[in-house]
Amino acid sequence: MKALVLAEHGGGTLKDSTLATITAATQLGEVTVLVAGQGAEASQAADAAAQVAGVGKVLLADDAAYGQMLAENVAALIVPLMDSHDALLCPATSNGKNIAPRVAALLDVMQVSDVLSIEGERTFTRPIYAGNAIATVESTEAKLVLTVRGTSFAKAEATGGSAPVESLTGAGDAGLSRFVGCEDSASDRPELTSAGVVVSGGRALKDAETFAAIITPLADRLHAAIGASRAAVDAGYIGNDHQVGQTGKIVAPQLYIAVGISGAIQHLAGMKDAHTIIAINKDPDAPIFQVADIGLVADIFTAVPELTSKL
Amino acid sequence: MKILVPVKRVIDYNVRPRVKADGSGVDLANVKMSMNPFDEIAVEQAVRLKEAGGAEEIVVVSVGPAKAADTLRSAMAMGADRAILVQTDETVEPLAVAKILKAVFEAEQPGLVILGKQAIDDDCNQTGQMLAALTGRPQGTFASKLEIAGEEALVTREVDGGLETIALALPAIVTADLRLNEPRYASLPNIMKAKKKPIDTKAPEDFGVDVTPRLRTLKVSEPPTRAAGILVGSVDELVAKIKDMGVVA
Questions:
Q1: What CATH number is associated with residue A68?
Q2: Residues 157-216 of chain A whose Cβ lies under 8 A from any Cβ of chain B
Q3: Cβ–Cβ of B218/A137 closer than 8 Å?
Q4: Residues A19 and A150 occupy one common structural domain
Q5: Which of A132, A151, A167 is the last residue in one of the domains?
Q6: Contact, B86 vs B61, CB < 8 A?
Q7: Which residue of B has its CA nearest to A247?
Q8: Mind giving me the DSSP string for A194-249?
Q9: Interface of A with B in 84-103 (CB under 8 A)
Q10: CATH at A291
Q11: Residue A175 domain-assigned?
Q12: In this predicted structure, what is the pLDDT of residue A138?
């Protein structure tokens, strides 16, 4: 089977989610990586993709139309490539989720979203009902279109490969949409979805200042990414790109520390695959304690600063 | 402008789903069902656009069993004007739903379609994108802000690294994220009025769409359960446990 992987990249490097998607693709067959973008960043990302172990070929589409990964333009680029590929795999990131279903519909095939494991050439597992059930599905479609959950596959080795890079010209701008601007939440912390340690806060943190005063020092001490429950995000304690859960980011770090989070099913869907879960909550009946490996029933406003100072 | 809002009847988001013992699916018998939460946000946004003078009519559409009419009534109680129920007892996949919606789109000629970003039962996150593809229209997924500016829709999207704003030529397909708005509760008088609003009942065959599933579900199982954890009695004990893990530099 010939598998095409849509790379997610930034700053001239591949995102971890792409490396995980390449691992999934190698389980299906020969791997070609498509890097769509603009300028030096795109060509650097293509060179990086060529170094990745297991990659057979890299296609580079360098055009202003692909600089912002607008779905209309990128989907139109991918569809003709599917004549010579059997499967498209995209990371299940906001980009991948945006583009892959558009491609699937243009190919008239059903997509398999958020693949957790590859059980056979056409058999996959995926979570449904906020991760409360796992479905095993078989696709008999002419072309496979998959989005891949990055935390469920090991990252492919970033070195060891030597794939050729071919330039590609697509149809360019479809003229349906244009990029206006963006607000990046700048952060020098590890990326939430790939961090080894995540410290998350919930509604109990009271307000943005308290959230920062309690959570940030602990995260600093552990070199952790900062996460949040939906309640904390909705209350404005922190930006929504920190939200962990069914509708936010899915994380599976080595260590997840949930501070003042009750553990609603929507939140658990985003973090229950963490290797070790620590919960600190004053309510001994909070559902978070049912999934926590280590629980501490305590007032977070005294316990967390004490924890930070003693680590 | 007319706004089309597809809505789905799903298990209520507060219910913990139970996997059937035979692995054939999730047990939905006697379980509370509600409008998909993201679809409520989509309906709310359409109603707000109408209230602001940006839309003349809101048409809600649902593909599902006869009971999906309740979901359409809820949407009309929130402010939608009329409804289309495409009735089928089959499980309809996003691609087939998108094909039905495409036919409705062509018949109704809306200026804007607002969907939820995903349904909380199948968690697919596909239908809006697929509808955009099939109609050849632009898509604004995961919208946290939506404005109509002349011939364009300005959509602020929730993306992994923050927010991005794109401009889409109308007609456009937009999918609602959680933070787009806070959906209103329907008042009792509005619930009563909604009973008089029309529901046009159709079948998938009326649109020439084959709803046979393309994916075969071999089994549905419980996720692996985590081993029982321990409670520690003090911060000092917790510190010792964390230090044992070797995550502290």
A1: 3.40.50.620
A2: 174-185, 193, 196-197
A3: yes
A4: yes
A5: A167
A6: yes
A7: B178
A8: G-SEEEEE-GGG-SHHHHHHHHHHHHHHTTPEEEE-HHHHHTTSS-GGGBBSTTSB
A9: 93-95, 97-103
A10: 3.40.50.1220
A11: no
A12: 98
Express each pLDDT in A224-264 by its tens digit.
Answer: 999 999 999 999 999 888 999 988 899 999 999 999 999 99
Average pLDDT over residues B193-207: 97
Q: How far apart are CA B37 and CA B117, in angstroms?
A: 10
Mean pLDDT of chain A: 95
Same domain, yes or no: A154 and A20: yes
Instruction: Please compute the mean of the pLDDT values over residues A205-210 and round it to a whole number.
Output: 95
- Please check whether residues A146 and A205 belong to one and the same domain: no
pLDDT at position B249: 61
Number of domains observed in the structure of chain B: 1
Question: Cβ of B247 under 8 Å from any chain A Cβ?
Answer: yes
Mean pLDDT of B110-118: 98
- The count of residues in chain B is 249
With an 8 Å Cβ cutoff, is B139 touching chain A? yes
Give chain A's domain count: 2
**Structural domain that includes position B203:** 2-218
The residue segments making up the domain with residue A278 are: 192-310
Q: How is residue B78 written in tokens?
A: 């929130």
Of A132, A177, A307, the CB nearest to B168: A177
CB contact under 8 A, A137 and B217: yes
Rounded CA-CA distance B15/A265 in Å is 9
Looking at the complex, report in whole angstroms how far the Cα of residue A94 sits from the nearest Cα belonging to chain B: 5
Residue pLDDT, tens place only, A86-95: 999 999 999 9
**Is A47 annotated as contributing to ligand binding?**
no
Look at residues A282, A290, A241 and name the one whose alpha carbon lies nearest to residue A264: A290
Q: Does B217 touch chain A (CB under 8 A)?
A: yes
Task: Give tens-digit pLDDT for A258-285.
Answer: 999 999 988 999 999 999 999 999 999 9
Judge whether A68 is annotated as a binding position. no
